[in-house]
User: Which sequence fits this backbone?
């Protein structure tokens, strides 16, 4: 599945619609988050109820497991009998789940339905217009002995661009993957696959790099003039003349129209990382967002454990308690040092608060189960 199409045709139009309503991408992110969480609430409710039901059935499941473990120990030296017991135990468990109308994987399926939307959201907030993006193509420079291996492969992978006025398009760089001998010239041009964006090629910044992906915060670049020369033409195309054997990357960099857009205490929705790559000073707004995200994880865990019966097994209960304490700071630390833009973190915070509220709405109602008499 091409998640960029989901981003392009669903998430970005929603962002633009809500930005026109509220006048700022920050409020648009909050509105989109609420819209998505409300739309997916039936799945979230089903997932939470399935988890709640499985927890309520744990004492009975544990009895069945203990009976099987006792029998397994008794017949551990009789493989044929042990295999028969295992098949019988699996059959009993399936009948138990069917009788009580519960699916042990029921909590997973809703998440699978949500995953494409979550990925599309992340791609939207991690790309244009919240940060500069680049269409990147590799160039492998061959020596004269490898000249017969020369080849050009179509176009690059498409990149989504969103302009300052909401115009958008899916753009490619042509040619794509290139292998060429020393001394050749290759002309590259940005083409529009679809969209209403026009004149973007005039704003493209061309750059050579020694890495496959362009990172706007990467200030250390190598001088590649010994490998190739890059000339910008009057029609906004770029001509690359290769001079020496090696491997380089050509980047057509597109500006991030909303990279510096401010919202509440956030100085830039496209800002990434705990430290500014130029000044080396801490990004306080990003750090605050990570802290708030950590709090939402703790809150969701508190609500879930508060309305759920404690595990009957002491080791399992201790493990659950430890995970409740360790999980929020662990996720927070990973998020802090992983390059997550401020706009994505804002989505995480709002989504976490809504998730906690939705969990409370479901879990505050006690789960009533009636086990059939033949299961006792």
Assistant:
């Amino acid at each position: 599945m091409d998640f960029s199409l989901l981003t392009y045709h669903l998430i970005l139009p929603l962002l633009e619609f809500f930005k026109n309503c509220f006048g700022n991408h920050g409020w648009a992110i909050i509105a989109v988050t609420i819209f998505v969480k409300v739309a997916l609430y039936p799945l979230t409710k089903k997932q939470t109820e399935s988890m709640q039901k499985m927890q309520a059935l744990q004492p009975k499941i544990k009895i069945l497991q203990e009976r099987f473990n006792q029998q397994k120990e008794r017949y551990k030296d009789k493989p044929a009998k042990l295999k028969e017991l295992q098949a019988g135990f699996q059959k009993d468990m399936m009948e138990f789940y069917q009788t009580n109308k519960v699916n042990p994987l029921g909590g997973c399926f809703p998440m699978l339905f949500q995953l494409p939307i979550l990925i599309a959201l992340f791609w939207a907030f991690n790309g244009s217009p919240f940060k500069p993006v680049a269409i990147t193509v590799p160039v492998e420079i061959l020596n004269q002995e490898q000249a017969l291996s020369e080849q050009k492969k179509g176009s690059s992978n498409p990149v989504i661009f969103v302009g300052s006025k909401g115009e958008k398009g899916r753009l490619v760089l042509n040619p794509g993957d290139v292998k060429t001998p020393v001394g050749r010239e290759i002309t590259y041009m940005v083409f529009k696959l679809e969209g209403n964006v026009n004149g973007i090629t005039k704003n493209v910044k061309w750059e050579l790099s020694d890495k496959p992906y362009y990172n706007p915060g990467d200030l250390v670049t190598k001088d590649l003039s010994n490998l190739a020369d890059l000339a910008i033409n009057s029609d906004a195309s770029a001509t690359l003349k290769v001079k020496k054997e090696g491997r380089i990357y050509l980047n057509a960099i597109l500006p991030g129209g909303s990279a510096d857009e401010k919202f509440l205490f956030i100085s830039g929705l496209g800002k990434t990382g705990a430290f500014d790559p130029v000044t080396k000073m801490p990004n306080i707004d990003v750090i605050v967002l990570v802290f708030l995200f950590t709090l939402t994880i703790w809150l969701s865990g508190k609500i879930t454990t508060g309305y759920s019966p404690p595990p009957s097994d002491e080791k399992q209960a201790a493990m659950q308690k430890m995970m409740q304490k360790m999980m929020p700071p662990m996720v927070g630390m990973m998020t802090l040092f992983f390059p997550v833009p401020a706009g994505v973190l804002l989505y995480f915070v709002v989504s976490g608060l809504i998730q906690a509220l939705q969990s409370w709405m479901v879990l505050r109602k006690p789960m009533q189960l009636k086990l059939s008499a033949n299961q006792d």
